[in-house]
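Action item from last week, closing it out:
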Amino acid sequence: MKLDALLDKYSDIFDNRLHQYMDYKLKEDGHSDEFYDAMGHIPLAAGKRVRPTLAALSCEAVGGRPDEAMELALAVELLHNASLIHDDIIDGDIKRRNVPTVHTKYGIPIAITVGDALVGEAFYMIAMLPEVRMRRYGVNVVKELFVSFTLAIRGLYSGEAQDIDFVHRFDVMEEDYMTMISKKTSSMHRLATRGGAILGGGHIEEIEALSEFGIDFGMMFQIKDDLLGLIGSEELLGKTVGIDIRGKKRTLYMVHALQNVSGEDKSVLNELLRRKYRPEDVDIERKIFERAGSIDYCEKKIREIKDRAVSHLEILPESEAKQSLLDMAEWSIVRES
């Protein structure tokens, strides 16, 4: 099956399950309609559903059925969306997936509460997994899922704290950036691939291999996201291009440029990072990044990480699911949104 069709397939399956869950919550919990509208605002908006697809494919690649990972996929996606809602507040973003951000539409207090609620719902779904998995997989697997989930959350807030701290620093190195995204972004991809492998009944070597694949996939996914946020199409992205420039984020192209520019470009870049943002800064900095080779460097780094990511899958038996994971790794390089 071609990758586009595969992504559409799992997106449809996941979206149906997500709608069922949100409808159930709307009917059963008794909270205001506005609160649950806000709760579903970003999760129900169109998305690539990369993490649910990774979970399903990882489950299938070790001999399980993709549907066995769907509850986990839902928990992972709810947690991911909680982090997006809080990120948007921190960054002051006004648009995501071509809709207003939650805090823009419903206000910051509701947005914070919705983010917290989605984390709670994600934990609830993980807590319910043992009831249907215990007999088949045993208590050690249940514990491993909770440990994996908790480590992912620790990665999220640790990475976010580093991301915030980096904005005020001029000494951020590539290693610092890689560590940050391995926590903030890769922790969720690792949770998807690792959890899928656990629920698929994979042996420890397969679980660890897919965990490492998830980490590397998340890292190249984030570097590509950073690039698209600089040179991509706003219509395709569904969010404002140049938002990282406005936020003075230490993306990989920024870190590379700060270490490699000289002369007038160095002076201009340092000045732009110190003064208040202006809309024209995006074009000015983009040209500096081009002259410094920082954009090309990011593309090269993505391919290096991709090669490492696919090497982790060598341990898996040949299957359509394994090939789809390899295809997703290649897609992460060439995607435009």
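Closing note: DSSP finds 17 helices and two strands in the chain.
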